[in-house]
Amino acid sequence: MTDYEPEFFPTEIKNTEKRIKDLNEKKRKHEMMMMMATKAGPEETSEPAEEEDTRKKHAKEIRSLERRIRWLEKKKKCLALAIENSIDLMTAQNLVEQQMEEEAAALKNKAEETMREQQQPAGDTNHKDPETVSAVVVPEDKRKLLRVADAVVNVSYDRKNNPDLNDLNQYMTGIIIAWDVTNKRARILTCNCFEYTESGHKIYVRWQYMEDTVFESELLFISSHYMVAVLEITFSEMPVDLPSEVIPSFGLIPKYGQDVFALARDKDLSLMVRHGTILCQQERIEELCQGYLFADYELPECGSGGPVVDHNGNVVGMSFSFEEQGTSVILPISTALLCVEMWTKFRRVTRPLLGIYFKNVELINEISGDSTFDGLVVDQVDPDSTAWELGIRSGTVIVSINIQCPLPLPELEDFLLSCGLEHLHGTHMKIDFELEVHDLLQDVKRSITLHAPFSDVSKDFTDD
To answer: Quick one: where's region Disordered (predicted)?
Structure first.
């Protein structure tokens, strides 16, 4: 939030109130247009698919306006509190954020209490997990999630034979991503909780279509950088009631504010579901690469490695739980599948090593309601990197990469992986990035060439 001089606070409050009024008027118009599209009679409407697209466009615009209005209302509160208490804007912002967190927690507790008392969806009242019942209340959502659930398996390891893993959850979730009917094999994408295992340690898979069978899987590869692992199981015989299509459909990278479902399979093979929103926040967690997103739901203990699904029934990500941070994290499924593609072709996963950690400007724009700022803000630079030698420091803005505007961080990770894929098709050991950088302190822009070496971010466990 811009740190205005105190004498400008009253004027800025008036300007903010005007912006809120204008945005509310735009929101009201979109609400009216969406209502008209919903209530229109048969003679007034176009094709059903077009009607649905129209309603979705208005709904998306309404959500965007609501986010901007909420930010402006927060800004107004901060300015008013700063004037009232004669404090600086940053202190006022911290106080307002603390108050908003307390109010949100109180509302969440009240909603959960009301849900427990009043909500008993027909047919699901006997589910042993009440949060699954409350997460799926729309029949169409339930139908689409059950379609994805065909590919959701339970993954576990033998703690007795894996003493290094005793501090981790014994049960996790996986997604069937490849199906070989001829050779009776399936490949499963899951989280990397096997970093300290060696080839030969036992990892088990159970699937609801063969619930009496415990498959001892083969660990094919892991990537500690992306926290993913791929397993393979072999069937002695195929189940007779197997669905015609097991592999789910995969979607695009989810966006901030998007509604999603997280699926998990517990040790009894019961399906567990959580429902929430992609948060407009960015946290630095040492174990993670930069392309992760954060969600506002709490995963069940067995949820890591499970699919994240949108309202169209597409798998858009994979879930992770970081209990020490109290955070549910999502790796875009496109990133995971690029790792799988690279390993399948070359038995390794590699990407350029930039030596730079960024702040997500798309996220900054989303929170501020201002989409005029383009670039990647440098958060940290590895002192041993070429970037450091070239003078890139925390706070530097990368204005362009190879004459193109930088991508948001999840898309940037996919771009770097695609560079790795091209590298493995060739023989060059480095890649050059033409960067335009902006030093905000000195207000100087300059062009540099960053020579980035490739780094392997996977470990292969197959016997070649």
So the answer is: 38-58, 103-130
Report strand pairing: 203-206 vs 459-460: unpaired
Q: What is the CATH number of domain 132-342?
A: 2.40.10.120
Strands lying side by side in the sheet with 327-332: 271-277, 259-265, 307-309, 315-322, 327-332, 293-295
- CA dihedral (15, 17, 20, 22) positive or negative: negative
List pLDDT tens digits, range 408-456.
Answer: 888 989 999 999 999 998 866 678 999 999 887 788 899 999 999 998 9
In contact, 116 and 129? CB cutoff 8 Å: no
The number of residues in the chain equals: 464
Per-residue burial over 432-441, b = 16 or more CB atoms within 10 Å of its CB, e = otherwise: ebebbbbeee
pTM exceeds 0.85, yes or no: no
CATH of 347-456 given 3.40.50.720, 2.60.120.260, 3.40.50.970, 2.30.42.10: 2.30.42.10
Q: What is the pLDDT of residues 13-30, one digit of tens each?
A: 888 899 899 999 988 888
Alpha carbon distance 53, 56 (integer Å) = 5
R_g of the chain, CA atoms, integer Å = 25
- Determine the angle formed by the axes of helices 48-85 and 89-118, rounding to 10 degrees: 130
Domain ranges of the chain: 11-34+53-98, 132-342, 347-456
Distance CA 426, CA 454 (A): 12
Helix, strand, coil percentages (3-state) for the chain, rounded to 5, are 35, 25, 35
* 177, two tokens: 């991503």
Q: Partners of 68 in the beta sheet?
A: none
Element (H, E) at 102: helix 89-118
Same fold: 132-342 with 347-456:
no
Distance CA 419, CA 407 (A): 14
